[in-house]
Amino acid sequence: MSDEQRLAKLWEEFVADRQVSRSTRKKYKGILDGLVARMGTDDMSAVTEVHLAEWIDELKKSKSRKTVKEGYAAALKSFFGWARRNKKLPANPAAEIFVEPTARTPQRKRGFNDAEASLILAATLAPVSRLMTPENVAARRWVPWLCAYTGGRVNEMTQLRVNDVFLVLGLPCIRITPEAGSVKDTKTRIVPLHPHLIDQGFLKYVGSRPKGAPLFYSLARQRKKDRVNPIYASVGNKLAEWVRGLGIDDPNVAPSHGWRHRFKTVRRAR
After folding, report:
1. pTM of the predicted model as reported, rounded to 2 decimal places
2. CATH (residue range 114-268)
3. Would you kindly state where each structural domain of the chain is located, as residue ranges?
């Protein structure tokens, strides 16, 4: 077996070449490690169509079709497809993987309606517990507004750093970049800040933070330095729990992604 065909070597090249986001790396690597455990070898050239077909069939018995299709099958197709196209492996054993669609298409998630958006934004101005850290207080105060005015994803906002807020031709902007954390398309975006954010004092808050520091979490208070789940994602999860606690419990509204859906809806209506 060539070292070039071991999972560790292929995985390193796959991540670098495809510029895989941190969240996708975590998901895909867990699946591939599961394959290695099942096979008893990390030689990816030893994996056959039969091996993967049998594994997928077993997974269907214990997991939802959505999980198998969008998690396991997607990871295997992406990894082995890349390896074959780049001549790393002689064949793509995942090429013929097929997972039947679910019988019922789930209802599409919607964005926050006017009443829900108003409720959340009003709640950002309410008093908070003195037990909350300054960063969590700031996340609750500013992240919903940033999402509402930019259409950005929650974790793209929670990962912002002081140096990601700057002037472009005299106009205050934020920079959403993979250098700070997970970005969906792995591309840096520069987004102007709405004047209302500036009027509320967002730039003043940014100026109060240490140079180069994250805006909405503290590295000094990070308990596990080698944590897999990034701390900015935990901040986003806490905000989602807070939104649900406000009474926005419709399962068809994602408490974190609802702003992005709303932004697209409002934009299309204009």
Report:
1. 0.60
2. 1.10.443.10
3. 3-85, 114-268
